[in-house]
Amino acid sequence: MTARLIIICSALSGFISVAFGAFGAHLLKEQLSSRLYEVLQTGIQYQMFHTLALLGVGLLMLRQPIKGLSLTAVLFLAGIIFFSGSLYAMALSGQHWLGAVTPIGGLLFLAGWMNLGRVAYRQLS
Q1: CA atoms in the 13 A half-sphere facing the CB of 23
Q2: CA 97 – CA 85 distance, rounded (Å)
Q3: What confidence tens digit (pLDDT) does each residue in 95-104 have?
Q4: Which of 28, 60, 73, 79 could lock onto 109 through a cystine, CB 3.0 to 4.6 A?
Q5: Where are the beta strands (DSSP E) in 1-125?
Q6: Which contacts (CB < 8 Å, 24+ apart) does range 90-98 have?
């Protein structure tokens, strides 16, 4: 992935995160059970955290193309899709079995952070 594509993906992810936050706060808060609303909020929170991390990766790549950072970006994006996406789907559909997908996203997030640490250790020292 190029720095440009990573930054574009982070902008889109940030947009989606804010949109879900507004949609949830203004339209869904009264429609969802407190548990499903909490699930939605968790998805939004983790998406925004990793959107900012993705933006940081993209900006770092603009400054200095470092081998391995593309993988970090892919892992963060996949984590957003699996983790937050499964929580959004569960909250909106009420299908609790979708929660079984969420840990895959969590593992992808962890792998992204580990890869970022590996890249920093190897390339930035």
Answers
A1: 11
A2: 13
A3: 999 999 999 9
A4: 79
A5: none
A6: 90/36, 90/39, 91/28, 91/32, 91/36, 91/37, 91/39, 91/40, 91/43, 92/28, 92/40, 94/36
